[in-house]
Amino acid sequence: MREFDVVIIGAGPAGSVCGYLLKKAGVSCLLIDHATFPRDKLCGGGLTPKCWKLLEELIPGIKYEYNCIRDIRLTVEDCHCCDFTTETELRLVKRKVFDNQLLELYKSLGGEFLHGAFLRYDEQSDGLVVTLKSGEQIACRYLVGADGSTSTVRHFLTGNHDNGFLILEQYEKKAPENRIEVELSRKYNLRGYYYRFPNSEFDAIGFGADVATAQTYQTFYDILKEKNIPVTKLRGCHIYLKNDYPLNDRVILIGDAGGFANRVTSEGIKAAFETARNAALAITNGRPFREVNAHMFAKMQKEERFAHFFFKPSIIKILGWLCHFPSVVKWCFDRTLRP
Where is the FAD-binding domain (predicted)? Predict the structure, then answer.
């Protein structure tokens, strides 16, 4: 049985950055993922200014491919449209390429990677034993679950298989305008939104909703039909938006696995980086993750309350009215994303 200080399940942004930081600190770790990289990932791929500046703090000098975006169009109830230019650029990445670049950075420090799937863990007096579906077992002091919203580590820890927020998405040829488009409407009869995110090669078109029913899919089909967009390869995933699991000092959940995506926008890459950093700090300093990551848990509670407020019909109506004042919308947006 091989032994490591830390075993990380999931080689996405959260897992790879956590592994990178641990290796920089001299901690032995093993990164495990069932996928073969580069692998595709359903995600608009938007890095807000807060997100990409945090990444540059964690990995100074990092280079990666992205499409620079500053123009945004917000549409509310079809009839209210607001165009504005952001104060600081947003960066749109192709997740297939971006995630692989982060994994390679971890490997460049001598970090070990194993292609495999998590099955279970067992607590021992001096640590944990992780068992993979292949039957291989690895001893470790800490287990980090960074395996996304459908986290098998979280499922094993809680037995809870709640799905969470549904995202439907497909790729489309690039539109002439290099801008992000977001639409809100009460006609969806859902707590949801439509978006179009342009990266360097194609546009990611998606729809988010808090319920997964046939009506949800039909709503997205209707939106595509209204916009004369043919249905191609439609994909779906769930974003877990809860922190209702028991906290374990030896088993740490980060990124989407821990339910840290934004409660309003479902954006999760910044939270992936932030919780990856906090997990690395907790492990290297021998402090409980619940203590190091306390501000993130508090932030999630505030976002949960705000999300219930934000999607009320009265608030959507106010947003429609605000579209008549693009400078106000721009100020609010810039203030929200300013690092």
Answer: 4-156
Q: Which residue has the tokens 């504005």?
A: 84
- The answer to whether 16 and 105 have CB atoms below 8 angstroms apart is yes
* Count of CA atoms in the C-beta half-sphere (13 A) of 212: 12
How far is residue 170's CA from residue 236's CA, in Å, rounded to a whole number?
A: 9
Quote the strand ranges of 46-192, DSSP E.
Answer: 46-47, 67-76, 80-92, 112-115, 118-124, 127-132, 137-145, 165-172, 179-184
Could you tell me the two tokens for 58? Answer: 């964690």
Q: Does the structural domain 2-70+91-163+240-308 have CATH classification 3.50.50.60?
A: yes
Token pair for 12: 């996405």
Q: For residue range 286-318, what is the model confidence (pLDDT) as tens digits? A: 999 999 999 999 999 998 888 878 778 888 888
Per DSSP, 13 falls in state H
pLDDT in tens, 102-146: 999 999 999 999 999 999 999 998 899 999 999 999 999 999 999
Q: Which residues pair with 207 in a beta bridge?
A: 168, 194
SS3 3: strand
> What would the two tokens of residue 26 be?
């001299």
CB atoms within 10 A of CB 250: 14
Interatomic CA distance for residues 309 and 315, integer angstroms? 7
pTM over 0.90: yes
Please give the distance of CA 131 from its chain centroid, rounded to a whole number: 26
Identity of residue 66 = Y
- The two structure tokens encoding residue 80: 């209210």
What are the sequence ranges of the domains in the chain? Answer: 2-70+91-163+240-308, 165-238+313-337
On whether the CB atoms of residues 113 and 125 are closer than 8 A, the answer is no
* Architecture of the CATH domain 165-238+313-337: 2-Layer Sandwich (3.30)
Residue at token pair 């002439």: 176
